[in-house]
Amino acid sequence: MDYVKLEQQYGAHNYKPLPVVLVKGEGVYVWDNRGKRYIDMMSAYSAVSLGHSHPKIVDVLIEQAKTLNIVSRAYYTDKLGPFLKRICEVTGQDMALPMNTGAEAVETALKAARKWGHKVKGIADNKAEIIACEGNFHGRTIAIVGMSSEPQYKDGFGPFPEGLKRIPYGDAAALEKAITPNTAAFLVEPIQGEAGINVPPVGYLKHCAEICKKHNVLLICDEVQTGLGRTGKLFAYQYENIQPDGLILGKALGGGILPVSMFLAKKEVMNVFTPGDHGSTFGGNALSSAVGLAAIDAILEEKLSERSAELGHHFAEELRKIKHPAIVEIRGFGLFIGIEINPDYCTARDICLKLLEVGLLSKETHDTVVRLAPPLVITKEQIEAALTMIRTVFTKIPATVSA
Ligand SMILES: *Cc1c(COP(=O)(O)O)cnc(C)c1O
What we know:
By secondary structure, the protein is an alpha/beta fold. The protein has helices spanning 3-10, 43-46, 55-65, 80-91, 102-121, 142-146, 151-154, 172-178, 204-214, 267-270, 286-301, 304-320, 348-358, 380-395, and strands at residues 22-26, 29-32, 37-40, 95-99, 129-133, 164-167, 183-188, 218-222, 246-249, 261-265, 327-332, 337-341, 360-361, 363-365, 369-372.
């Protein structure tokens, strides 16, 4: 069976996958339909931080699947409350609103921020503004792409909602300048993932937090990709010793098995929601809750943040030793690393295709960045194996500019 052809014929062409058909995953490895094994250094955009088919999470999934799955939020379950309590304790937030995908949790945050702006801050009706950053990635709904600076994300999809502004990333002064009496929230990724693992200047987020506090504006961190250990801390905002007013989680929260996302906030914000305001048929279902709780427990028990910090540091150091003119920069935090490629030599996709040949899965983000974000359960030996593959690939990239 030609699976590539099938997807291309019957599936919308909204992705351009690398030419490999995956049939099995275990830990940091995946296998294709010809039996070839790869080290997964993409982890489904960090959704698989716990590795493929983590045994403990699979056990919880199977047990819960046999017991209770979907009953909707029309009723209470014995699984949702304990999950929400745990995630609130871990994040230091007061309350949580469970959804499924990252985009839904971001939409939830936008709705909460606007309603808080109107009902608590006292902004005139329909005037609340939300500030986001150039290069942001918060998902794909119409409101969210309305905030994007990426022309392709928006082309043909307008008109977009009003009240969404954009400022340069990494520039706290620009935030202070953009704030008006109608500003409800500032939405920011502590490190921009999809934009190419963009790390802002040290002190940026702390400065933003002070500015937000001064002007009674909510600071909402989108940690859908950076959260839950990816960057070497449980949450990337902890590098700046701040506590955001709202926090968005997703991806790894589903333990690499289910879509589980969440908006968390302090009481004053979350209490703007009243029954009937907002919801999701599947959000917070018993199966997702059981899996989400198991995911958080596994991330903490297995000390995956610490592992990410330690191995990420080593990985980046070794990558920096690869001297090749096509490599502009290695950047990132923990096991969240971007290799910036000089497009005069090759594209990031060329590198990803060559890595695929030698048995390593990665994915370019934009044309010039190779993202390396393996499952956090990876071992030092597996990192060494990946480094050997990466070194091999760079020996095959000509060190002279093609005319
Ligand atoms: C992936 C991502 C989202 C969107 O998540 P989906 O589950 O794809 O809707 C939102 N924010 C950030 C920072 C992301 O990386």
